[in-house]
Write a structure and sequence with these properties.
47% helix; 264 residues; six-stranded antiparallel beta sheet; Arc Repressor Mutant, subunit A; single chain; alpha+beta
């Protein structure tokens, strides 16, 4: 086996059921719009009710989860806040990108977002700036989305190092309001490689145009992205391209700040 293959081989991770179940509970509570009872949690995750209860009691003790003493329903606790704050404060991308997002939002009247790409699994919102206009995308810091969705997903396909078969498999599992065909999407990805930016016109959310540009590492792989979202009437073709060019210039500066050299 080539030496490079050995160097890139990922270490085997042995599953730890208690940890996996605890994380699943936290993620479920984070997604739920309202507190959940232990039976609902157990059913959603395929757990034995007593197992879910034991885990919840530990999470409550650690203040990562809270329980209403009357309804016996669970939701995320205040102990999550310092953990999330520490991640954001120690993430150099979040601190560098925030003033950029504020400027983009004010200049173009869009919701400006900075995301981190986590392989083909997810993209995570690390920073955002909402416009003062009537339109505001429903997204918060910490929100997670499928990696290949919308304009940002085209960047992941264009500037990632993932196999075509795995990308196609993940694409087929996506949920859009107006889904493009796989063939049309592939052509758009090839176009994104040439242009260096991506535009989603109503595929992900009807009536909303999303513009995204990559922040590349020294190997030319996308690790973060800048995203601008606004109503379609506000972002016609010319304005969307102008926004993309502005974002590209900002993304190049951010890449230099993060990695110390301009990608070539």
């Amino acid at each position: 086996m080539p030496r490079t293959a050995l160097a890139e081989k990922k270490p085997r991770v042995r599953p730890v059921p208690a940890v996996t179940r605890s994380i699943a509970i936290l993620r479920l509570l984070g997604r739920s719009p309202e507190p959940l009872g232990v039976k609902a949690i157990a059913q959603a995750l395929g757990l034995v009710t007593s197992t879910a209860l034991h885990i919840l009691r530990v999470l409550v003790q650690e203040e990562l989860v809270k329980v209403d003493p009357v309804t016996k329903r669970y939701s995320l606790g205040v102990g999550m806040l310092p953990l999330a704050r520490n991640v954001i404060e120690r993430n150099s991308f979040a601190s560098v990108v925030q003033p950029v997002l504020d400027r983009l939002s004010a200049k173009w009247g869009v919701t400006a977002i900075g995301v981190q790409i986590t392989g083909l699994d997810h993209m995570v919102v690390l920073a955002l700036s909402r416009s003062q206009g009537a339109f505001s995308l429903h997204v918060d810091v910490g929100s997670r989305f499928p990696a290949l969705i919308s304009a940002t997903g085209r960047l992941v396909a264009a500037f990632g190092d993932h196999s075509p078969s795995e990308v196609e498999k993940r694409f087929k599992a996506l949920r859009w309001q107006s889904a493009p065909s796989l063939e049309a999407w592939k052509k758009e990805v090839e176009s994104v490689k040439r242009k260096g930016f991506s535009v989603d016109r109503g595929n992900y959310i009807s009536g909303v145009t999303v513009v995204a540009v990559p922040v590349l590492d020294p190997r030319g792989r996308v690790v973060h992205a800048l995203v601008g979202a606004g109503v379609a009437d506000q972002l016609d073709n010319g304005r969307a391209i102008a926004l993309a060019n502005d974002m590209r210039a900002q993304a190049e500066r951010i890449s230099e700040l993060l990695f110390g050299a301009k990608n070539g």
